[in-house]
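[Meeting: bench + compute handoff]

Bench side (C.D.) handed over the final construct sequence. Compute side (W.E.) agreed to return the predicted structure before the next meeting so the bench team could plan truncations. Sequence as handed over:
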Amino acid sequence: MTPQELRAFCLSFNAAVEDFPFSPEISVFKVRGKLFALSYLDARPLRANLKCDPEEAIRLRREHEGLIVPGWHMNKRHWNTVTVDGELPDGLVRELIEDSYDLVVAGLPRADRLCLDRP
């Protein structure tokens, strides 16, 4: 997955926006003001911080040692840093991004979730 593909996929979700609250180099992808992905898109290797169910996070770290690690500068229980340089299948990376978005949406207030359901 290229940086452009990562950005495009993150922005493909309903109400997703890209923001730069930390620095112009760090892309923060949010839904209704809540972070679901963070990446320095010019980094090599390309990595993304993604929210994850705590039990799933542990399993993924075991199965993909070195490629999925506890979230850098994030709550290590709920966030993983995923290396997006081609070693992990793109399908898995897309699934992890979608899961992160879904977890964040699930934690939104009901009114915000309802807004996302509207066309």
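W.E. noted at the follow-up: The chain is about 35% helix and 25% strand. C.D. will use this when planning the next construct.
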